[in-house]
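User: My collaborator sent over this chain with a note saying "see what the structure looks like." That's all I know about it. Can you take a look?
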Amino acid sequence: MVQGLLKDGIVAGRLAPEQYAENFSDLHPPLTHHEAIVEADRCYFCYDAPCMTACPTSIDIPLFIREIVTDNPLGAAETIFEQNILGGMCARVCPTEQLCEEACVREAAEGKPVKIGQLQRYATDVAMQKDVQFFERGAETGKQVAIVGAGPAGLACAHRLSMHGHTVTVFDARPKAGGLNEYGIASYKSTDDFAQAEVDYVTAIGGIDIQTGKALGKDFSLADLTEKYDAVFLGMGLGGVNALRAEGENAVGVDDAINFIADLRQASDLSSLPIGRRVVVIGGGMTAVDAAVQSKLLGAEQVTMVYRRGKAQMNASEFEQDLAAAKGVTIRHWLAPKRVLTTDGRVSGLELSYMALDEAGALKATGETTTIACDQIFKAIGQTLSSDGDGVELAGGKIAVDAEGRTSLAKVWAGGDCATGGDDLTVTAVAEGRDAAESINRFLSGH
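Assistant: Without extra context I'll predict from the sequence alone. Here is the result:
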């Protein structure tokens, strides 16, 4: 055992320097050329293509896999990018086991689907490494569009609008573009600064100006944008974090998981990041898993995820849950935080209530409690819109949109995590940004 693991409290340098690089290496090493050809050859090229139906961006999966089989990875990349210009990142972070691969006929027949996600990464990596661009900027229309948020939805919207010849200005509150692809994804899923490489690839089409450090409600209002621009797309994601609603939640050592992940993603030296010896992560989604696994990889000796409902109700995919378990994370269900325990103002434990469903199916505390000793707690219990919508109608805490992404305000569209109708996935945000761009183009063209 590394000596650092014996230290109580939240400290840095728990592991040997070389261990960090190994722990945070690529979760799924890319397929070699030979491996890609062999894997692609497993595809049945189904006529009804259930995998394509399951893809939120409707990529023609059988076609791009056939192009890989015929040793045409650039053709495969073009097929992917036609529907999903962020296909490279989606290949890395999409829960393919719940989407295209779950629908794969080989999954039903053999329990071993074609590795669609890894094949998609193989093709898109070839195109990006060779810097092959498949799309040209359309003839200049003279129309100006503002986009708030340089995440997946905003980037996809910007690229499609540029294809139609519109000029786009993207505003983002963060210092770097990319949104959750840059700040909110586990480091082992996106290595070698891939998020920024993808931003560069997407914006290479031209006509897209990204201005960072500019936040809606602080540096400009929605009214400012609608007055200056011909159309506006809101894709700023969810900046707020839900409250824990547990006694003592403001104690030193209680942090937001999304901020922890962002700090980790931007760190130049992982050994400088402090982590507790015993960590508790509250939540059951992808962010909770990312925070829990990375806590373990940073050297936490004991990491426990607690979720108020059962395994079947967790938002994290079964693959993600299995990954957490494989990395040594303990997952406990039917537990809800009640009180943060402190010693000298710092976290020393978490008291939890046992939960159960009553006869009406409502979640209720049973009256029994338990305690987990810990020195650090991460909240991963969902995010909220960080503003009041600035005049846009809201529904369920998000911006209300119709099937085309139009909001209650004229000239304003929205998509991604900040809007209703999505499922908080990168691939869905891309689809919504792309489709909103088509609606905006129709509007700007007078249709």
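A starting point for your reply to your collaborator: The chain has three domains: 3-25+242-379, 33-129, 144-239+385-444.
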